[in-house]
Every structure is written in C-alpha cells, then in structure tokens.
Amino acid sequence: MSTSVTSVTSPSSTTPPVTDRPDPEATAPPGSPWRSWLAVIGLALGVFSFVTTETLPIGLLPSIAEGTKVSLGSAGFLVTGFAVLAAVTAAPLTALTGRVDRKWLLVGLMVLYVAGNFMAAAVSGYALLLTARLIVALAHGVFWSIAVSIAVRLVPERHAVRATSVVLGGISLASVAGTPLGTAVGQSAGWHAAFVCVGFLGFLVLAASLLFMPALPAKGSGSLAALRHVLRHRALRVAVGVTALIMSGHFLAFTYVAPFLEEVTGVRPSLVGALLLVFGAAGLAGNFAAGAVVGRALRASIIGCTGLLAVVMGVMYAGGASGPLVITMLVCWGVLYAALPVALQTWVMRLVPEESEAASSLYVAAFNGAIGVGSFIGGLIIDSNGPRLAMIVAGAFALAAMLTTAVFGRAGGEAPRRAGS
Fold first, then answer.
1. Terminus-to-terminus CA distance in the chain, angstroms?
2. Which of 54, 162, 266, 359 has the smallest CB count inside 10 Å?
3. Alpha-carbon torsion 350, 353, 356, 358, what sign?
4. 50-64 pLDDT, tens per residue?
5. What is the mean pLDDT of residues 383-407?
6. How far apart are CA 339 and CA 341, in angstroms?
7. What positions belong to coiled-coil segments (predicted)?
8. 149 with 356: CB under 8 angstroms?
C-alpha cells in the first residue's frame, strides 16, 4: 500500500507525518491499468481459491472420515487444524518474508497451494492428508496478509478501497459458488476429485501472477522487528481486537446456523443449502456496496455494521420461529458481514502504512483465530442449551465490537487526509 495513505492517529502513533509532496508510488502504480486490474482480479481468484480450500472438507466430512478410517471429530481437524496453523504462522512468516519481491512471493505461495491440494488428492491415509492440508495452511496465512496490500499498490490511491472490495469479494463468491460446488463434486465423484479441482484453481492464480503481476519490491523490514513495531501501535491493537470480537461472534452463530434453521425455525434440511446460497449472494452485494461507502466513512461503517449485526442476532433469537423473518435476517446478516472484512482490512492498512503487511498479518491471525474460538464457544452453547442461545451470545460479541470501535477506534477510523485538503 502506498506510503502516502495516512490517517488521523493518536499522538503515540508511529505513522509518518503527512506532507504536501506527492508519493510517486501513489500517483503511478506499476504496469498498465488493464494489466493491473487483471492482476487484482487474479488476487480475488486467489482469495476465492483459499477460502474454498479451507472450507472444502466441511461438506465432505463423512466421506473423508470413511475413506481415511477416522472419526468425524478427527476428520473435522482438517478444518480446525488448518485455521489454527494459519492463525499462528501468518504474522511471523509474513514478517520473515518481508524482503522478498511480492510477485515472486505470491508465485511461491501458489506453488505450495497447488502442491498441497494435489497431494491431498493423491493420498488415502489421514496422516498424509492432514500434512497436505497443513502445507496449504502455511501458504494461506501469508497470502491473506499480502493480498490486499499488493492490490492497493497496483492501482491509483483513489481506487484503493475498490481494489480491496474486489479482492475480498472472493470470500463471498466462495460461499456462493466455491464451497457448494466443491461439495457437489466431492459427493458425486469422490473427495479426491474435489481437491483436484481446487488444485487447478491454484494454477489459474499462478498463471495470472506470472502474466499480469509486475515486479513489486518489498516495502517491509523483513524481520520479526516489524511485528514488534506494529504491536506498539495502540490503534492497531484496537482494530485487531475489534476483528477478533466480531468474527468470533459471527462464527459462533454461523457455524451452527443449519441446526438453528432446522430446530428453531423448522426449515426442512433439504432447504438449508438454498438459504445458505441466499446468504452468500447477499454477501456479494454487501461486499461491493462496502467499496462505495468505506472510503468515505470508515469508522461509521464499522460501527453501523457491528451495531446492526447485534440487532440481527437479537431478532434471530427472539423471532427465530418465524420463517419469513429469519430469511429476511439472513439476507441482512449476509450483507453486513461481507462488508466488514473490507472495512476492517482498510482500517488496518491505513494505520501502519510503512509496515502494512505486518499489520495485515495480525488481522489475519485474529480473523483465523476467531474461526476456532467462535466455533468452539458455539459448540459449547449448542451442546448445553441448543442453537437459539448462540444467536444472542453472538449479538453480545457484535455489540462489544461496536462499543470498542466507538470508544477506542477514532484513530485511523476516518478517511485519509492530505495537508491542505
């Protein structure tokens, strides 16, 4: 991300002062405009690929467990173990690769992605399958940490939020198409075939990186000292904390939305998949709507989305027996949730522009850690009180995220300003 992207920060912030001198990287991104946007689309396909791969085993757990002769719980570790390793390694690996040209780092990550998925497609034992998943997880954390920062370096500064929304649109697209299609392939042709398909997706991203990505010299310090630097930034710690709160709340509820729909709302199991597609489609709309709003009102967007999510969770809890009301809330939930990664990632990138990738790696760690924490808490609630209570607890997490942003999130929560503007 261009070093000229600055924000209003606290006095303790280490962000360099704004000057009237234009940053050449901000005014002249590398490469021609059409090649740059093709590279951004390639990064979006990479996000789509990684999210699809991360969640692919969820719909195939019974067949994977049977094929590898392990329990469903052990098969489930193919998802939770993936998320935990990505969360733990994102920050240190991103810092240690900070001096590598971003184009070639991206190429290396996609090689790992392809190798891990093809290995998963070729093995039949659980230990080797888990090893293949963990290889992809190592690439996952670093890819997420650098994808948006690469995208905003490829386009003029005025299009930074738009590029962010395009890249992160891969998340919603994976919910709408990636995971359902991967599950369908695995159920019809076997789970090995599903891993072959996501492996070929990686080849497309690899080709886009080689063809359209210009050389992008590293901007970070390339050491673990970068992590110490960003961890001293108070406003960044707030942003990471808000990310952990709202994503824990989301996954606390969403991981168990299927039993909620079946047991509380009375939806037939055969219709749950269709409702999840509606959720994902609403997310696509929310993702690109965020691109038009976040750049002008970042802090207000985060406060509004988290506050409205708290309301949605409360309505789901109180009116969960009403099918039309729950479907309406699912659409609202999809729109609001999908807007949040765009807003949160933009917030993090603005706070420490001189070490944007190290800052993003902390965001990635919080996001992936929240998947595990939220799902774990949700599981405890489901086992003891059923799925309805999970909604109000998720609402409490969303409310806490809103209040934290409102009280402590002013630094870096506004649109960047230049001197004299």
1. 21
2. 266
3. negative
4. 999 988 887 787 788
5. 94
6. 6
7. none
8. yes
Among 227, 228, 232, 234, smallest CA distance to 407 is for 234
Amino acid at 170: G
User: Which residues are CB-neighbours of 235 under 8 A, at least 6 positions away?
Assistant: 9, 10, 13, 351, 409, 411, 412
Spatial separation of the C-alpha atoms in residues 38 and 155, rounded to whole Å:
11
Q: Where do the domains of the chain lie, and which CATH numbers do they carry?
A: 32-222 (1.20.1250.20), 224-415 (1.20.1250.20)
CA geometry: angle at 217 spanning 216 and 223, to 5°? 130
The percentage of residues in the chain with a pLDDT greater than 70, rounded to a whole number, is 89
Residue with tokens 């590293």: 218
> What is the C-alpha separation between 399 and 419, in angstroms, rounded?
35
- Please state, as a whole number, how many other Cβ atoms lie within 10 Å of the Cβ of residue 34: 9
Give 16: exposed, middle or buried? Use CB within 10 Å, 0-12, 13-18, 19+.
Answer: exposed
Q: What's the residue count for the chain?
A: 421
Q: Which two tokens stand for residue 234?
A: 């108070």
Six-digit token string for 313: 């969770």
Tokens representing 121 are 């497609």
Q: Tokens 């995971």 sit at which residue?
A: 179
Query: Could you give the C-alpha distances from 32 to 38, 43, 46, 151, 186, in angstroms and in order?
Result: 10, 17, 21, 14, 40
Q: What is each CA distance from 140 to 82, 110, 111, 159, 368, in whole angstroms?
A: 9, 9, 12, 25, 10
Q: What does the alpha-carbon distance between residue 64 and residue 123 come to, in Å, rounded to a whole number?
A: 11
Residue found by looking up tokens 């038009």 in the block = 292
Is-contact 145 357, C-beta < 8 A? yes
Torsion of CA 282, 283, 288, 289, to 10 degrees: 60
- Per-residue pLDDT tens over the stretch 114-170: 999 999 999 999 999 999 999 999 999 899 889 988 998 899 888 888 888 899 888
Nearest residue to 401 via CA among 284, 250, 254: 250
